[in-house]
Design brief:
globular, Rossmann fold, binds phosphoric acid mono(formamide)ester, alpha/beta, 2 domains
């Protein structure tokens, strides 16, 4: 979570107030002067592939006047066996003020935070969390539903569909959306949406057809082949859990389609649904720089004060 030490590692455990403060800062991002992080260097430590998160953190840092350095596994001494913690300490010794960490190990961002004293932001760590993605999703949905004045999502129902058990996006969104008052239902086959997820404060369903007309937003998750999700037959998965054109047509009037990206078109979502009038997908992407600027500023400011 974001705290006085200047870390944003997870949403789980955060109260609604600090989440709403971050969202309000992102909503009001046009008020940033552009020199808030002048003199600060932000290191993007991306040990796993990314387009949206890496680019939007870079834009966010530059918007605040910070310098940015990119470090990846390939091409750095991590590929020679240096640990991520040693890499982080090495980079901090060069005067870096904030680290943005994407890695395949759950808890990897905390490992970096334990090794350094600068600001650390989790940009997605294994199956654990992807906190800025959830903030992006909450801001985008609040705007679409006309709730951006106070980010109160009471009475809003959101279905998260796919491999929720393996998804850091699902975990962060369950924590974020429920903290803001929304009801979240995870939907997928039992192996991907096990009833144990109820312990995170969400409902569980294995029946998308029964759910799709009852919610204000459907967030389709990417099937993560790299995390060895076993979906069985792709056609069967799409038939039961794909956000197809037919299912999207049965959504409530005014209900929204979301997806964190990247999309497997024709599997978890039909291309025309992802590109359609209900889709918030490009608005989610567009909110990335503002949300990440707000998160960077919050973490670096907290670090300066500690
Ligand atoms: N949503 C998301 O994290 O996308 P990237 O992997 O492209 O950063």
């Amino acid at each position: 979570m974001t705290d006085t030490a200047g870390r944003l590692l997870q949403i789980r455990g955060m109260r609604a107030d600090p989440i709403r403060r971050l969202l309000a800062s992102a909503r009001d991002a046009s008020a940033f002067r552009g020199d808030e992080l002048e003199g600060v260097t932000v290191a993007n430590l991306f040990f796993e592939d990314s387009t949206r998160t890496r680019v939007s953190f870079t834009i966010a840092a530059q918007r605040l006047g910070a310098a940015v350095v990119d470090v990846s596994g390939k091409g750095s001494s991590v590929s020679k066996g240096e640990s991520i913690a040693d890499t982080a300490r090495t980079i901090e010794a060069m005067g870096v003020g904030a680290m943005v960490v994407r890695c395949s190990q759950s808890g990897g961002a905390k490992g970096v935070a334990d090794a350094v004293s600068c600001a650390v932001l989790n940009a997605g760590d294994g199956r654990h969390e992807h906190p800025t993605q959830a903030l992006i999703d909450a801001l985008t949905l609040s705007r679409a539903l006309g709730r951006e004045a106070d980010f109160d999502l009471s009475g809003v129902r959101v279905a998260i569909v796919g491999d929720c058990a393996a998804s850091r996006v699902a975990r962060s969104n369950i924590a974020c959306l429920t903290a803001l008052g929304a009801e979240v239902v995870c939907c997928g086959p039992p192996g991907m949406a096990p009833t144990t997820l109820e312990g995170l404060g969400c409902g569980v369903s294995h029946d998308l057809d029964g759910l799709v007309g009852e919610v204000d937003a459907v967030m389709a998750l990417r099937i993560q082949f790299e995390r060895s999700s076993s979906i069985g037959s792709a056609r069967e998965y799409r038939d039961r859990f794909g956000l197809t054109r037919e299912r999207a047509a049965r959504m409530r009037p005014g209900a929204w389609v979301m997806h964190p990206g990247p999309l497997n078109r024709g599997l978890e979502i039909d291309g025309e649904v992802g590109d359609g009038d209900r889709s918030l997908i490009l608005r989610q992407v567009g909110a990335g720089p503002d949300v990440r600027a707000a998160a960077l500023l919050s973490c670096v400011s907290a670090c300066r004060q500690s």
